[in-house]
Amino acid sequence: MNQSLKKILIKTKKQVFSEIIGNNTSLQKGEGYDFCELKEYEYGEDVKNIDWMISAKMQKPYVKVFHTQKELNIKIVSLLNGSTYFGTKRFKQDVITQIASTLGFICVKQGDPFASYIANETCKVCTKKSKQIFNVNFMAEQMFNYNVIGKTIDYPHITNELFKTIHHKSIIFLLGDFFDIEKLDLKLLSKKHEIFAIIIRDKFEEEPIELGNVNFNDPSTNQNFEGLLNTNTIEAYIKSVKENDHKLFTHFQDNAIRFVKIYTDEDPVKKLIGLLK
After folding, report:
1. pLDDT reported for residue 277
2. Name one Pfam family in it (predicted).
3. What is the pTM of this model?
């Protein structure tokens, strides 16, 4: 196993099993012990959940609602395309691997089964449903060594495949940089499943600096770009990124998708804790 990958796995495993992280990730409501809210009693509900003190004060029956304590089905979907082969501090692909490993170890710690996918032009199963640590290691190795050069993201195909192949209600984690999201539509998928989006970016992608004459290669299309990276070019680029993200965040909010942005120079665990609370 690659030494860099070993370091990622050792670090993430230590963080997950030594910190309180990952508990109660689901928004589902049902039978359990974790109190969620009070609501008016409706015909057919279990009378055991009636809060008699509140009902007496309000002069109408109220019942307690709890978060479900059922075993969760977790799906980790890594969107690995050419643009993830970039990073000024660390490659985005490496950060995606670290985050996916962290989520996998959380599943093992909580006793929840997880499966993983690598998605771009296709959506292929990376690891099948499991609760074992060796599955986390295998998933990380597949993602870390995956050749992303020349790969592009086909959002309609990915969402259709996930909708067709994931039959039971699940928690789906989507990991990617989420650029070029014109064809991204998670409305149908979010009605069937609970979705978390984790956006991995490099700060240079959002705020590039003036470099003068440049020669870039697009790892997604293998096309070369030669030009002048000056103030005007940068302003136009930043504007397009902000438009992309505004559309992205609006889409997430409209479909009740929780999301977080993590940069390549950050330790992702703290932000994951905030997302999963």
Report:
1. 74
2. DUF58
3. 0.80
